[in-house]
Amino acid sequence: MDQGKTPRPGFFRCLQNVVGCAIVLGLFAVCSLQIAGAQSSPVHIRFDADSRVFRIDAANTTYVLGINENQQVQTLYWGRQLAEGDHFSAAKAMPEAASFDLSVNTTPQEFVGWGGGLYVEPDLKITFPNGNRDLVLKYLSHKIEGDQLSITMKDISLDVYVTLQYKADGETGILRRSAEIENRTDAPFTIEQVFAGTWNLPRGTDYRLRYLTGRWAGENTVQEQPVHPGKTVLESRRGTTGAQNNPWFAIDRIGNNDAEDGNVWFGALGWSGSWKITVEQDQLQQVRVSGGPNSFDFDYRLQKGEHFQTPYFYGGYSSDGIGGASRLLHRFEIDSLVPHAPHPALRPVLYNSWEATGFDVNEAGQLALAEKAASIGVERFVMDDGWFGQRKDDRAGLGDWYVNPQKFPHGLKPLIDKVHSLGMDFGLWVEPEMVNPDSDLYRKHPDWVLNFPDRPRTEGRHQLVLNLARPDVRAYVFQFLDKLLNENDIAFFKWDYNRNWSEPGWPAVASEDEKKVYVDFTRNYYSILEELREKHPKVEIESCSGGGSRVDLGVLRYVDEFWTSDNTDAFDRLLIQNGFTYAYSPGVMMAWVTDSPTWVNNRTLSLPYRFLSSMQGSLGIGANLNKWTTEDFATAKQMIAQYKAIRETVQRGSLYRLITPEHDSEQSVTESVARDGHQAVVFAFLHSSMEGYPYPRLYLRGLDAHARYRITAMDGKPANGTPAEASGAYWMEHGLDVQLRGDFQAAAFTLERQ
Ligand code: GLA
After folding, report:
1. CATH level 2 (architecture), domain 665-753
2. With a 6 A CB cut-off, is 384 part of the ligand 1 pocket?
3. Contact 158/128 with Cβ under 8 angstroms?
4. Annotated catalytic residue, options 496, 552, 569, 715
5. Residue closest to 75 by CA, chosen among 286, 281, 277
6. Which of 131, 197, 292, 609 is deepest in the core (most CB within 10 A)?
7. What does the pLDDT look like over 317-365, one tens digit per residue?
8. How far, in Å, is the centroid of ligand 1 from the Cα of 671?
């Protein structure tokens, strides 16, 4: 929406900081104020007191909700931005469709309590001490402050207050939603399910759902299915995010969409604990998506006077297909979410020792690798697992975060100093929330792990999960990380987490409070990250969980990057990285070049192929440099230099998935266009040539049709006859032919605007 425009008098009347009962809203109807910050922010939030309709305009999106005659907060519209003068009449609850389908189920509400005959997924379900479980929320008041809207609701008789909070992002139109539950009754009550809210899609019956599934070493498979009557549940019951489902969804219209065209509604939950997103088509074929912490094995006793703030649920709309939806999320993550947004540092090229040395780290070995890494242009040297406690393998040592004196007799200082003298900064692997039973920590504090008394403690990778919800465990974890940073010049932590929960008991608290662990653990995890960053503002952190098992928008507020997968096979990675970019920016997607054949598939791939696969994200090297030939070093040096010349385009630019490797495609092609348009980068991969067919012509995107671009091969060749320079229109409409034949071939090109 044009920022400068004043709303038409008599239509949307802006209410600034107005809090009042529904009954007295009429008194404020004559108020017509400019929204605070409207000059500097492209977000407009307005309220029409006559119709009781709220309208949020941000970027290319309009979101409209109203208060209906039953005082429910009802969704009226979510989609492409509407015209300034488009008017919404007052919200009207759906009539009773049948005695089996009461109005409360079919009225598309923003947030609904379980009560009054609700059968669809509730946003809030409470049990009160007297056994009452009925909760009916009605609009009470609202407040508009710049780019934020909050609407307070209250139960019809009990002093349960719920404030729905909306924050709109002016760059992308992405809305951040959450809810705050407040117990103003005179007794505790138990929350059994609590979501951030419900997204209601426009009426339609032809919707398709996309979501991500996976497993260890096989993350981010894109799934597609029609939205059917009934419910699809995406979830983790694992205590953390999990790779099995990722908390992201996108819904478009079948038959009316391709990758770069058509309407897409998408959302992502900002939560790294057990979570749930439900996609539900109701009896009238309306589609609603709700999400928040998982209600399985969960409840939360809220004491009198306490508040419960839900995680954020982000949602957005794109008219440019699933590709456009991804680009909005990427932009939002980099410009609004990550630490140091909107200007986070570009990811340095890092070296990581894990695949080279395993647990067998020591001063001399790491120094030798560091020298070699520096010689090819690496900027950050990361020592992985094995440096602490009595860590010889994965059976011992987790929890004992002192430097192993046999491996590092002089501490970490000589290594770190040497790494610095080679022009790199230093990073270290940690796994703070875990403990091996064979550790001093566990021998001293066996009660610190998640457990049920007198029940087995199931190990995974010979380790147990510390109960981070406990204040003493939280303090211990913060203190050792803080100490490591105080005593050593560490620029980066790779924060790992290598198993999921079992026996999630918390015997130290009252049994009514034990199930809080799912929320309190995650809150403490965030608060440690936050406090560490406050105290050590220069430190960077990677979220790793045996690869990509803790990738979500909740932790992305506190970390700079994700470890995408333990699977570093560069061909497998095309698929894993492709899925990752549906929801997450290549600027936070770490991708290492490792040795060939890979441990995963015993597949042999050329070094340039492996580099090009990794250069589509944030480049790292994880190979055993001690085994490299002179030629390998020369290739690596050249490709790392090339990467540095394109990384801003890859990490910050607009990504177009020209050919996805999904559905067993023989090809995979991405294109990234720099934000200022000066450069585009194309990566093309071929699995196997078949029957002599040429490689498909590539129709580039996102270029300026009238500008001229000069093509340069980073690796591989364009087809004979390809002009050295042509217009954006040529590259987009005529296309680019690439010479790629054989098995596991790759090529990459840059196009520089002249
Ligand atoms: C996990 C990580 C790996 C490596 C090992 C170390 O599996 O994903 O990259 O750090 O732990 O034990």
Report:
1. Sandwich (2.60)
2. yes
3. yes
4. 496
5. 286
6. 197
7. 999 999 999 999 999 999 999 999 999 999 999 999 999 999 999 999 9
8. 30
Cα 355 to averaged position of ligand 1 atoms, centre (Å): 9
pLDDT at 597: 97
Ligand 1 contact via 545 beta carbon (within 6 Å):
no
Residue with structure tokens 């009226």? 76
Would the pLDDT of 249 be above 50?
Answer: yes
| Position 39 pLDDT exceeds 60 | no
Shortest-distance atom of ligand 1 to CA 563? 8
Task: Name the pTM for this structure.
Answer: 0.94
Distance in angstroms (rounded) separating the CA atoms of residues 551 and 707? 38
Give 433 Cα–ligand 1 centroid separation in angstroms.
14
Which of 503, 516, 409, 518 shows the shortest CA–CA distance to 456? 503
Nearest residue by C-alpha to atom 8 in ligand 1: 546
Distance 593 CA to ligand 1 centre (A): 15
Which ligand 1 atom is at minimum distance from the Cα of 384? 10
Which residue is it, tokens 């589509």?
A: 616
Separation of CA 497 and ligand 1 centre (Å): 8
**Topology match between the domains 350-657 and 665-753:** no
Annotated domain spans of the chain:
30-337, 350-657, 665-753
Q: Taking a C-beta distance cutoff of 8 angstroms, is the pair 735, 294 a contact?
A: no
pLDDT at 694 exceeding the cut of 80: yes
Residue whose CA is at the smallest distance from ligand 1 atom 1: 546
Nearest to 240 by CA among 547, 541, 518: 518
As a whole number of angstroms, the distance between CA 289 and CA 264 comes to 14
**Tens of pLDDT, residues 610-668:** 999 999 999 999 999 999 999 999 999 999 999 999 999 999 999 999 999 999 999 99
Determine if ligand 1 sits within 6 Å of the CB of residue 388.
Answer: no
Please indicate whether residue 595 is annotated as part of the active site. no
Whose alpha carbon is nearest atom 9 of ligand 1?
566
pLDDT value at 437 more than 70: yes
Does ligand 1 have an atom closer than 6 angstroms to the CB of 429? Answer: yes
- Residue 8 CB contacts under 8 Å (≥ 6 apart), including other chains: 84, 85
Q: Tell the residue nearest (CA) to atom 6 of ligand 1.
A: 385
Residues in Cβ contact with 722 at an 8 Å cutoff, skipping those fewer than 6 apart: 711, 736, 737
Domain spanning 30-337 has what CATH number? 2.70.98.60
Rounded to an integer, the average pLDDT of 535-553 is 98
Is residue 446's pLDDT more than 90? yes
547 lines ligand 1 (CB under 6 A): yes
Give yes or no for residue 496 CB within 6 A of ligand 1. yes
Measured CA distances, 466 to 400, 446, 463, 539, 615 (Å) = 13, 10, 9, 24, 36
Q: Tokens representing 307?
A: 């508040």
H or E segment to which residue 251 belongs: strand 245-253
The structural architecture, per CATH, of the domain 350-657 is Alpha-Beta Barrel (3.20)
Q: What is the mean pLDDT of the chain?
A: 94
Q: How far is the CA of 353 from the centre of ligand 1 (A)?
A: 10
Our answer to whether residue 566 is catalytic in this structure is: yes
Reported as a single tens digit per residue, the pLDDT across 665-693 is: 999 999 999 999 999 999 999 999 999 99
Confidence at residue 13, expressed as pLDDT on a 0 to 100 scale: 32
Q: Does residue 1 carry a pLDDT above 60? A: no
CB 45 within 8 A of CB 55: yes
Residue with tokens 């999921």: 500
298 CB under 6 A from ligand 1? no
